[in-house]
Amino acid sequence: MMIKLTGGKVYDPANNVNGEVRDIYVRDGRIVAADPDARVDQEYDVRGKVVMAGAIDPHTHIGGGKVTIARTLLPEDHFKDEVAHTEITRAGTGYATPSTMITGYRYAEMGYTAAFEPAMLPANARQAHMEMGDTPLLDKGAFVMLGSDDFLLRSMAEKQDFEFIKDYIAWTMHASQAIAMKVVNPGGISAFKFNQRKLDLDEQHVHYGVTPRDIILTLARGLLELGVTHPLHVHGCNLGIPGNVETTLATIKATEGLPLHLTHIQFHSYATEGDRKFSSGAVQIAELLKKYPNISIDVGQVMFGATCTASGDSMRQYNGAKNADPKRWVVMDIECDAGCGVVPFRYRDKSFVHALQWAIGLETFLLCDDPWRIFLTTDHPNGAPFYTYPHLIRLLMDRDFRRETMLHVNPDALMYSTLPHLEREYTMYEVAIMTRAGPARSLGLKDLGHVGPGARADITVYNEDSNRERMFEKPAMVFKNGDLVVRDGKVIKVVNGATHVARPEYNRDIEKSLKSYFDRYHTVRMENFRLSDDEIIDGGRGEIIVQPTRARTSS
Amino acid sequence: MTAQAEGDRSGEPTGTHIYNNVTCPFCGLLCDDLQITRTGSSLKVNNGCPRATAGFQRPLPAAKPLIRGSEASLEEAVKAAAEIVRGAKLPLYGGMAGDVGNARAMLSIADRTGGVVDHVLSEGQYRNFRVVQTSGWIMTTLTEARNRADLFVIVGSDIHKLHGRFFDRIVTPDETMFESLGGKRTVIFIGEGLDTSAATGPRVKEVITLPAAKDRIPEVLAAISAIVRGHPISSGGEEVKRNSLLASFLGSSGNADEIAGIKRADIEKVAEKFKAANYGVLVWSPPALNMPEADLTVHMMTEIVRELNLTTRFAGLSLGGNEGAPSAASTCTWQTGYPLRVSFASGAPEYDANRYNIARMLTDGEGDMLMWVASIGTDIGLPQTAVPTVVLGTPGLRLAQPPTVYIPVGTPGIDHSGQMVRCDNVVSLPMQNLGRSQLPSSADVLAAIEAAL
Fold first, then answer.
1. Are B136 and A73 an interchain contact pair (Cβ–Cβ within 8 Å)?
2. Which residue of chain A is at minimal alpha-carbon distance from B113?
3. A99, A388, B56, B344: least CB-packed within 10 angstroms?
4. Cβ neighbours of B378 (radius 10 Å)
């Protein structure tokens, strides 16, 4: 079956195509080279429309225990957004923490065809994959969390051989079926269990004596030497604390050339100028990032309205719980492995703090001049639900709209940010980098994020509209593996996406140590901690795609 | 899976097979370290609690699908069930005792047919959900408690009877990771008649019991709550007031005061231990808290935990979770946003924890058909009802009334593989197929019924 999309204006940064009119041919779910002699079974006239690869969200909390805790915590969040089933779609609920099927439908209806859960606890991996398995239309994958797990901290405290630690990192990725690794408040989630309430970059964990700096460097170097494409995904220390920009700058400098991804950096870019001792540190971050090409970021943009924050960072979420709105929150210590904190929150445009958070996010986008190293996220649902992306894109692409919006936010806040002075407007090409080509390259997603020959036929077609919000919220067509799944912003066909994993090489002897650890201390057997392929793909829930890793090296 | 099956596993069960690292579906702890030997279709548990042993070793009676009491083929029974479902205006999907696959299948057919979903043990779970949905909580999980807790407080729940290996695995394990912090445990029982016999051995420093009657446990908790907050406690009820008045006349100290029949000094001593703990864990099993307004008791516990976290670390640990209740609730929550008691009658999920309580609906004559899944234990037979019933049950399920259609189904973790969610709602475990029978999974039967609609 040959499909042809005729005459679209194509933005495909991975192949250096910047708005040129091109025909795209699809055969058997993949994009193929133009072949004028081929018999076309189905042609779509997309003249005058914008064509991109399906969008990829590299950081969105869509599956796993903390999301389901958030769903449980706030039934009223769903009351206003209950969705009936149709002939082809299941019923569910939306808003800040939508149900799994609704998550899949709404992402697809917005032109997204892949989304990555960034905080999968090893102990909760099975449930995270079950939830992602119930999320249709999207390819997905998960970043597994280490860094507050007792096995790593013990190994570091005991000064275990680095190859041993690398084997453990790789084993964890296999066991939990992950594509990348994240560290959240390095060591801090564990320290909180020992009643330590704060852990700065060079502060020692009260029990193990290791510091967040040690943990970040150990994991980052481990992943590099294991050949995992996506660098360590870092949710740093001191989230949300005024002055934490210093910690973030120190973290960047600590890498000494190691690659790192700093996630939801907006929440880590707070300085302490002014009467309120709260101001933007976005300029300092953007300047330093220019000197560190090894660092990529995503923003975690705040948007105004009610949401629910859900994080592995139990230490900081416990601290933030005093601001819960409504006053209801959950904090958990989990399995000598990790933790979580779920705190509902309402960002108000008239609040000094919230307006400044909003401004810092936008500043970060506008000040960072390399779109290959910055990804568009709201850290769904922490900064805002993912449905706000089209609005965010308009804020970035439309200076006048941005100015108009600034009139409605707390004016004092804008005095502590450079946002009012920033003239930049994102181009379509830059948006395509930030939402497609960049995340695909960073995560090592072979065949995704572009529309050149060989790519999976995940394609989004937008109606050209000078109102970029309207344009991006309702694509004319979305194709998933060559199937037309969305038409005029509505799901017309439901298919399952694949689960992407990475499997770096490791020495199986690590299981001897792990088996002994699990038998002595754990309540789950090592053999049952591991998640099999069958558990993910059973019931026709889509294939597993093993993304390539580089050969393992040693320093 | 990691079964070390020796020999041929295909076809009818034959030979002797040994399975290691087997997860037990018979209570919410989901112990996964069982070794089970299967000979033909009979199982022998080599290391389980009494409940596990009884569950796995129960001889499986022969069972055939039945339509109005007459034997039928599976196909005929599926067809008959589909006819009943098709004829219903408000089908009720209850029981829900099964694994995640079962919950997925029940939600699918309920969504399609505009039905209501609820689990047979929701009443207990709702003692917790009501608290989560009004104030939230601070909780821990089994492995964390096992290694870290220096204080266990068991509230109103006969944990040793309900979860036979909890003490063995969590309170008194051979090794813990932080010997200097949680190596020696104080165990406090609040409530009368609780089996304290398992709180023993080198790991247990001290056992204290406050034997309050179950309906007066909230008074004890209220007193502890006041003490940890630094509030003075005035005497509780009138009776106590009289006593203290009398005491003041007689010139004796306040030590004569009693709260819920417990000496105030004993409660104060316990409250001090709460405050002194490095990592305290308040343990309850929701089904056991059958006092009136038990959610308020859970709430009081979680508020004590919240207060103590201002200075030290403390967490709740809710057990229970039998009959796959957490699997049903979690799956329903991620698929609909709501933890059971959801109606799809309007096409969209509508949640009402009182209105869509299936037990209440049946009593009040709401709903016109009941699909009942009981794939694990034999004790959760059909509620009394006059509406047509379809039961997907483990053979030997105790049924007070014959269902309209009965279809025997396998048990997850014995007759088919699957996944279940543990009582702490964090960990889920793989369930192995031990090859006991050829019985279909309830999920497969439900999918067949849905396909036949």
1. yes
2. A85
3. A388
4. 16
